[in-house]
Specification:
Blueprint (H helix, E strand, L loop, with lengths): L1 E10 L2 E11 L3 E6 L6 H8 L7 E6 L2 E2 L5 H8 L2 E4 L11 H12 L4 H14 L15 H12 L6 E5 L7 H18 L2 E5 L3 H7 L2 E6 L2 E6 L1 H6 L3 H7 L3 H13 L1
Parallel strand pairs: 3-8, 3-9, 6-7, 7-8
Antiparallel strand pairs: 1-2, 1-4, 4-5, 9-10
Helix pairs in contact: 3-4, 3-5, 4-5, 5-6
């Protein structure tokens, strides 16, 4: 579980986050949604320590990550897996070498154990036998699956995912969504996903946090998204009459 308490962040006179507090539960897919510039990506960066906060704290299973010094943070950082937008693979490394990278950098396994773990992760994302390929030889979906394999290589307790379906076709997006969901449940990870893809939110979202103008404007589950009267959330999720009709159909289906 990750608990965020009253996080605020400004850049100069621009207040990006204002006293955001929420909880991301273990064994669940927790979404952060919101318009571009709303502060959702900055919130993730504050939680994982990439950006310092002006105010507030982030707790990882009760451990105050924000107040720790660099040395103490290292242990928690090794418990995190991250899937960046676009997968962010190393072009000069093969698929298998990309997955091995965090194991070599931060792990304590023997060479044989690292190889076995990398192969297991590739098999888990249906890339068995593809370890010798380079990123330039992969489709967009394969790159994302490689990114997932690398993100879970260290068997993380916490998984952070930034726009996992960006640039993917609908069919491939479903594959990626299902992988994220399955891996979260299998490993009882606390998974936090930043996304604009409302199909993903409805399909695999357990808890949803809506950021609006730097504030946590609404939170709930996917059934509550369909039922809410929150105007700002409805305008974001269902911006057209066509989408509002889809919402009514989904309400009846759920």
């Amino acid at each position: 579980m990750i608990e965020v308490r009253s996080i605020s962040k400004s850049f100069g006179s621009n207040s990006v986050l204002r006293e955001v507090s929420t909880v991301f539960e273990a064994g669940e897919v927790n979404f952060i949604i919101g318009r571009s510039g709303s502060g959702k990506s900055v919130l993730i960066k504050c939680i994982v320590g990439l950006i310092g906060v002006d105010q507030g704290e982030a707790f990882f299973d009760g451990r105050n990550f924000t107040s720790m010094d660099r040395a103490d943070r290292k242990a928690i950082l090794q418990e995190m897996g991250m899937l960046f937008q676009g997968a962010a693979l190393f072009d000069s490394l093969t698929v298998k070498e990309n997955v091995l990278f965090p194991l070599k950098m931060f792990g304590t396994m023997t060479k044989g154990e690292m190889t076995k773990r990398a192969e297991f992760c590739l098999d888990r994302v249906n890339l068995a036998g593809k370890g010798g390929l380079y990123p330039s030889e992969l489709s967009g979906g394969m790159k994302k699956r490689t990114g997932i394999a690398r993100a879970i290589a260290m068997n993380p307790r916490y998984l952070f995912v930034d726009e996992p379906n960006s640039g993917l076709d609908p069919e491939t997006s479903i594959v990626i969504d299902n992988l994220i969901r399955e891996i979260t449940l299998e490993n009882k990870m606390t998974t936090v996903v930043v996304s604009h893809d409302m199909n993903s939110v409805i399909e695999i979202g357990d808890r949803i946090n809506f950021i609006h103008n730097g504030q946590l404007w609404w939170k709930g589950d996917k059934k509550q998204v369909l039922a809410t009267d929150n105007r700002e959330l409805n305008d974001f999720v269902f911006p057209s009459e066509f989408m509002k009709e889809i919402r009514e159909n989904l309400r009846r289906a759920l």
